Amino acid sequence: MLSGFNYAAPRTRGELLDLLAAEGQGAKLLAGGTDLLVNMRSGAVKPRLVIDVKRVEGFSGIEWSAKDGLVMKASTTINDLLRDREVRERFPLLAACAHDLASYQVRNRATVVGNVVNASPCSDMAPALLCLGARARISSKTGTREVPFKEFFTGVKRTVLKADELLELIIVPAEEGGARGSYRKLKRINGHDLGIVGVAMMKKGGLMRIAVSSAAPTPVLVDGLNETSTPEAAVAAVRKAISPISDLRCSKEYREHMVEVFVRRLLEELK
Amino acid sequence: MFEQNESRPELHVGKSERRVEGISKITGDAVYVSDMAFPGMLHAQVKKSPHARARILRIDTSKAEALPGVRAVIIGKEFNYRLGLYVVDKDILAKDEVRHYGEAVAAVAADTLEIASEAVALIEVEYEVLTPVLSHMDALKEGAPLVHPDLGKYDYVPVFSPQAGTNIPNLSKLRKGDVEKGFAESEWIVEREYTNPSVQHVPMETHVAIVEWKNGDNITIWTSAQSPFTVRNLFCYTFKLPLNKVRVVVPHVGGGFGGKAGIHLEPMLACLSRKAGGMPVKLQASREEEFSLLPCRSALTYRIKTGISAEGKIVAQKMTMYWDAGAYADYAVNVTRASGYSAAGPYEIPNAWIDAYTIYTNKPYGTAYRGFGHVEFFWGLERHMDLIANVIGMDRLEFRRKNLLKPGSITITGERISEHSGNPTKCLDAVAKAINFGKLTPQEEARQKMTGRRIGKGIATLHKAPAMPSFTATAAVVKMNSDGSVIVNVGLTEIGQGSATAIAQIAAERLRFPFSKVKVTIEKDTDKEPYDWQTVASKGLILSGNATGLACDDMLAQAYEVAAQVLRANVIDLDHDADRVFIKHSPERGVSFAALSVGYAFPDGNAIGGPLIGVGRYVAQGLTNLDKATGQGLPALDWTFGAHGIIVEVDKDTGEYKIIKIASAFDVGRVINPDIVRGQCIGGMIQGLGTAICEGYIYDEAGHLLNPSFTDNKIPTAKDLPEEIESFAVQTAQVDGPFGARGVGEHPMISVAPALGNAIREAVGAELLHMPIRFEDVWRALTTKEPIDNWITKTPTGSCRSDPATRTNSPDSAAAP
Amino acid sequence: MITVNVTVNGKKYKRDVEPSKTLLRFLREDLGLTGTKEGCGAGECGACTVFMDGHTVNSCMVLAAELEGRSVETIEGEAKEGVLSDIQAAFDRHHAIQCGYCSAGMVLSVRELLKRNPKPSVEQIKEGIEGNFCRCTGYQQIIEAVLDVSGQEGSKGELHYV
Ligand SMILES: Cc1cc2nc3c(=O)[nH]c(=O)nc-3n(C[C@H](O)[C@H](O)[C@H](O)COP(=O)(O)OP(=O)(O)OC[C@H]3O[C@@H](n4cnc5c(N)ncnc54)[C@H](O)[C@@H]3O)c2cc1C
Ligand code: FES
Ligand code: FES
């Protein structure tokens, strides 16, 4: 059961940043709530103030331009992404990862921003964003900075964000548009489930990137590969980048094995 | 009377009449206990043990009591009431020692849920943590800590055999023939051990109850329960109250599956209500609490040793079952008893030996779950039959057919099977045919080529009889309204299984009335409904169906008797239709049911009859208690036989698999409502798939339950359905069933797992001895990696207890003696 | 307390709510609309599915405080003046109901699915109701009801006799 907090729904970016600055640690931003409310219900998170981002002017929708690339806002939901034609046509990997996240009604609420801020090792959006070289635009009352996603995650459920900071935009560079990509996610059932391991692969113009979820404290990007890398080289690089553990969902050995199988199969698929 | 009328075509039986309560459910009108609220109602919350075993040194409730809005706080020490279905081993709240993770140690009733949970957080409990007994196999060892040191002093129902000074609340034995001699005569001997973990029922409505304890001990309990009379009787036993003081009301129930068969939250809420001055107190378990505050299904280790003749006949079988009851005996002792007499499956075995142990451990306790032990032991048994066939080199279908029970066969308890008992061979043949067992079709060959995944097929048989005492009884009351419509009262609850609709069909058929004229009450109230033993065991249709038929006859007889006087004719010359009773010979001379319904007055003032109310009573026939030393006797009112066939596609590099088709067949005696039978077949089958593919409790070394939620205890979703599903009904009429019908509520869940295991074995050779069959398990079996007993600790406390020696991949310990 | 103006099943409500109250509890406790059920309280099971501003959401994962100016539709708004909706009627015809606890959420997920895809394939139906657990029916008769209401083949599942 939830209890003991206040709720605010600022209408402007300025109001929101003021609230964040004033409340600091005691505040939590609410996007879709599909992580936050689960964590509050279990008692893992106990904010004094919940600040809803969804009423803020200009915080919703999804934009594409050849200049700025694809821009997702703080309230952009996973289903917004999946309903967007530009995304489906230009960023098939984003769509593939989004499609594998949770159930339809959860995707109606869950946001892309919330997913990455939650920073679960099994995040489904992180692998796509890592492969696509996406950046996080982070704002606070004192200013704005941009961090590439490969530097964004710092540990299990930890990111570079500070208590008074807002992840305002997620930007996927325009040049990544048209990249081929695919995602493999191992689950315990066919229905919606958190990933046991997930492997995303992207190929464009000689480049190849692989990102892996649920196989390290954070989702990881495997750099330094290209389209001519052999399967063995790809597997070796991935092995080096990950550090899976055994938990109640699966053993370390099986995770290692499945990551390798997925890498090989993705290479086949995107040949 | 009407019996003399020539037989007429059936109007309702065999037709898919709509569910009588369908509209209220589909519109949200149906009221469940979780939806109920009363003026002044208080909300309860529970303080639960974070330890598997610990001594309670001190509980301080003063801060909780001081919180404004708190109306009552209770702890175990306040009460001297003991609870138990068969072995009276449970306190309302833990007293000196907690025996499992999640056990209740204190409870609060407050004005709001928020206050109640705040108060619970303020309760301080000091524990001395003790070493828990987690593995049921360790609990049997000399010197193992005793979960219940006082077992020898507990009251128990005498059909059970608690072993004082041990962790064994029941040991059931069966001896038929001479197994050792049988083994000596056998050509082959195959022995192995099969295991499965505890699982959760997962009714979508968690346990919930509201209790008020008014002055003069007038108590009302609204509860989401399967068996209102059992709740009442056990409640009164515990509190030493007369049965007419306690009223139990059960409205719509959001699923039960056995988990709501006994008594659970009610006594605790009663104590809170009494302490809070008689205000109604409500508690609904959270989903997490459903996993550990409330009971689960027991884990099982099942060792089977089988001797087979050169011709492929089973000569002897020695079976040892180790049932993990968890902290309290609840239904687990009876699961042990019931599986102890059916553990051999629908096979004829001349020499049989069974020891079935119920074992206490420091884990959430086991209770009844759809199949009552059969889902668990058929996993091992039907894997074992495949193993034997493979070892002796016989076709798996042929081997089973050869050994199945047939008319004239004697079961292991000494019961003679007749041609009315049902036909397991027909069920097995139907599913084998439906999946083209024994070969791949050209399409399947092509699919295999295209996908690179291997296709395999598996079959498995099943049987089950209701597990119930010899005096199992029920009654029905059929009342006619003044417009000629009728109301049927039975104590059987509607928990989703569809019996209310089937009972309505039986009543409408027997009365030869339109279906719309019959109403079966949904809300059960022990003060108003006639007695029914319990809504369990797939016995509802037979017992309540028969009682309903008799009640209809009784009511019609009353109507005929009055009509005979009104029409000045003999009863034997009367007949009726939906509206009136008339003289066969001159149908224009009749009297309407409406005119007869509440008594008939002649113009001269003479009046006869009265409200038409028929009563039907039915008690199970021919059941005897089993001999304690040999297990011989008559335990079964009826046997429902069945079989499943599965086609699976397996990726041999990853262990991932997909079910292409499942075919299921059951000998239901007579189909009363095809859509409802099919709903049971498919719903039960999917629940069986859950058990087979993903469900199971996982503990750490200290006995903490690690997956008490849907995040890590997945259940099948729509996407987990096989690509194709076929359901078959065999109709070998049950002589004493209504219209020949017998029960099929539990059976579809049984033997899904071994059919899957057998199919996977055929597809890729993975020999699986533990369920659930996770993808990783298949991969491990294929790569001959040591199977993991538990992903966390490697200690045998988790979801996968088994002896590694019995789980190797090499051909089995099969040898000629 | 936070004051919200919200439209539920076409009716306007103005209510004060605790910030911690979920939409699910608001509907059930404050408005007495108990047709929407709780199966987990954690977004997993879909028993609490309702429409909010035209899309399905898990109402256990929405705060009532978020409702200002929004419109919500629940199972109570599905039948009109005693007449079952087409989806409800199909569920009733196909025995797509057993205990009924998942039914409200299931019907609304089907409504959402048919809105975006009037003739869904079996695969698409399964995906559309993947977020709604049903422990009783095994889903098959629900899928058949959806095929029926969308006017497609394959809706007549049969029990075979041998
Ligand atoms: C049943 C269920 C199934 C799920 N399945 C999956 C799955 O398969 N794969 C997967 O990856 N995830 C899954 N999730 C997790 C969750 O749905 C996703 O992570 C989702 O994208 C989170 O987004 P949200 O908008 O709901 O985040 P919220 O819960 O609103 O927020 C998440 C965190 O981010 C913070 N936050 C939100 N917005 C901002 C912002 N603009 N700036 C800074 N901080 C912010 C919040 O304070 C909170 O700490 C599942 C969840 C549920 C309940
Ligand atoms: S109750 Fe909301 S998803 Fe289960
Ligand atoms: S009908 Fe019971 S959960 Fe779906």
List the helices and strands and how they pair.
The complex is a heterotrimer of chains A (271), B (817) and C (162).
Chain A: E1 6-8, H1 13-23, E2 27-30, H2 36-41, E3 49-52, E4 62-65, E5 69-73, H3 78-83, H4 85-90, H5 92-99, H6 104-107, H7 112-118, H8 125-131, E6 135-140, E7 143-148, E8 153-155, E9 158-159, E10 166-172, E11 180-186, E12 197-204, E13 207-213, E14 220-226, H9 231-241, H10 252-269
Parallel strand pairs in A: 1-3, 2-3
Antiparallel strand pairs in A: 4-5, 5-10, 6-7, 6-10, 8-9, 11-12, 12-13, 13-14
Helix pairs in contact in A: 5-8, 9-10
Chain B: H1 22-27, E1 42-48, E2 54-60, H2 62-66, E3 70-75, E4 82-83, E5 90-91, E6 97-98, E7 104-110, H3 113-122, E8 124-129, E9 170-176, H4 179-185, E10 188-196, E11 208-214, E12 218-223, H5 228-239, E13 246-250, H6 266-275, E14 281-284, H7 287-292, E15 299-308, E16 314-326, H8 332-342, E17 351-360, H9 374-392, H10 396-403, H11 424-434, H12 442-451, E18 454-464, E19 473-480, E20 486-490, H13 499-511, E21 518-520, E22 524-525, H14 540-567, E23 574-576, E24 580-583, E25 590-592, H15 593-596, E26 598-601, E27 607-611, E28 613-619, E29 640-650, E30 657-667, H16 674-693, E31 724-730, H17 752-764, H18 775-782
Parallel strand pairs in B: 1-14, 12-13, 16-17, 20-21, 30-31
Antiparallel strand pairs in B: 1-7, 2-6, 2-8, 3-7, 4-5, 9-17, 10-15, 11-12, 11-14, 13-22, 15-16, 18-29, 19-20, 19-28, 23-24, 24-25, 26-27, 29-30
Helix pairs in contact in B: 9-17, 13-14, 16-17
Chain C: E1 2-8, E2 11-17, H1 23-30, E3 49-52, E4 55-58, E5 71-73, H2 86-93, H3 103-116, H4 122-128, H5 140-149, E6 159-161
Parallel strand pairs in C: 1-5
Antiparallel strand pairs in C: 1-2, 3-4, 3-5
Helix pairs in contact in C: 2-5
The structure holds flavin-adenine dinucleotide and FE2/S2 (inorganic) cluster (2 copies).
